[in-house]
């Protein structure tokens, strides 16, 4: 099963102006094995794109097929089941917590869908274990735990609905470096262990470089790049995408310019350090055998 965009366009209508947020978008996303980063400057159409994936928005032109349901349809179409199959985690999801205790909050999502309602309690407990919330906290108010724990509880509420695809809108926004690493390791574990597809909007190139397998770049509502992160960061016209390099690549470029270190695509700190060590070994060998 896939999410298939076919010539999808979306326009916001103002009093006298029309803003085309998406233009003739063609895109296929599998429900297994994908880890996709959606990139682009503010206003490029990223949020509009992902909100089509669980039918929060419907195309004003073209068609989208979401795991077997085509929209817009000729007759009135129920879309509630789509929102169970495609779980959308908004920015600052902890702001959506509202129940009297943590377990009830996580049970709320699956309780609203026919397929998961009979198992709401079981799925909620499973989800809370997945995100690392201790059982001793289940009866606590979600407003009496730390900010990081609140975000994990909110994410558990989406996981408890048993979505086939997870869509994340800037999942690390507002987190400190350790919190960012922890939350991304959580999503990566879900991706690896459950083979679940993840689609992520992000402005953090370090996160993209470490976790994404595929990258889609938007500009003015159009897809201008769709490929691997390696192809993106080594693209000859990378500057035209108006994106930043990940930190290891910035350091690599600086060392190339200042001390002549041979340039190589490095996307993680480990790759950068290994490259420096290899070059140091080579120069040591040359010096020893020269003098």
Automatic annotation (TrEMBL):
Its main location: membrane. ATP-binding (A) component of a common energy-coupling factor (ECF) ABC-transporter complex. It holds the Pfam family ABC_tran. GO terms for cellular component: ATP-binding cassette (ABC) transporter complex. Belongs to the ABC transporter superfamily. Energy-coupling factor EcfA family. SUPFAM superfamilies: P-loop containing nucleoside triphosphate hydrolases. It is a peripheral membrane protein. CDD domains: ABC_cobalt_CbiO_domain1 (cd03225). It is found in: Cell membrane. Forms a stable energy-coupling factor (ECF) transporter complex composed of 2 membrane-embedded substrate-binding proteins (S component), 2 ATP-binding proteins (A component) and 2 transmembrane proteins (T component). Its EC number is 7.-.-.-. The gene is ecfA2. This is Energy-coupling factor transporter ATP-binding protein EcfA2. One of its GO terms (molecular function) is ATP binding. Residues 3-245 form the ABC transporter domain. Keywords: ATP-binding, Cell membrane, Hydrolase, Membrane, Nucleotide-binding, Translocase, Transport. SMART domains: AAA (SM00382).
């Amino acid at each position: 099963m896939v999410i298939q965009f076919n010539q999808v366009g979306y326009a916001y209508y103002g009093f006298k102006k029309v803003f085309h947020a998406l233009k003739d978008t063609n895109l296929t996303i599998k429900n297994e094995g994908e880890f996709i980063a959606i990139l682009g400057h503010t206003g490029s159409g990223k949020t509009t794109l992902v909100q089509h994936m669980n039918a929060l928005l419907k195309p004003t032109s073209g068609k989208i097929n979401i795991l077997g349901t085509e929209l817009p349809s000729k007759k009135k179409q129920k879309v509630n089941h789509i929102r169970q199959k495609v779980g959308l985690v908004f920015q600052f999801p902890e702001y959506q917590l509202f129940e009297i205790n943590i377990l009830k909050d996580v049970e709320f999502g699956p309780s609203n869908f026919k397929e998961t309602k009979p198992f709401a309690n079981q799925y909620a407990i499973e989800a809370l274990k997945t995100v690392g919330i201790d059982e001793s906290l289940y009866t606590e108010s979600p407003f009496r735990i730390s900010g990081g724990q609140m975000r994990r509880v909110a994410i558990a509420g989406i996981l408890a609905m048993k979505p086939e695809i997870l869509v994340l809108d800037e999942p690390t926004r507002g987190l400190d470096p350790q919190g960012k690493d922890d939350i991304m390791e959580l999503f990566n574990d879900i991706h690896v262990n459950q083979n679940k597809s993840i689609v992520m909007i992000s402005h953090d190139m370090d996160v993209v470089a470490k976790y994404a397998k595929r990258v889609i770049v938007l500009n003015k509502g159009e897809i201008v790049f769709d490929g691997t992160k390696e192809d993106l960061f080594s693209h000859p016209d990378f500057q035209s995408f108006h994106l930043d390099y990940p930190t290891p690549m910035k350091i690599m470029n600086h060392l190339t310019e200042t001390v002549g270190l041979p340039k190589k695509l490095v996307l993680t700190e480990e790759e950068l350090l290994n490259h420096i060590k290899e070059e140091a070994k080579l120069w040591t060998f040359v010096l020893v055998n020269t003098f």
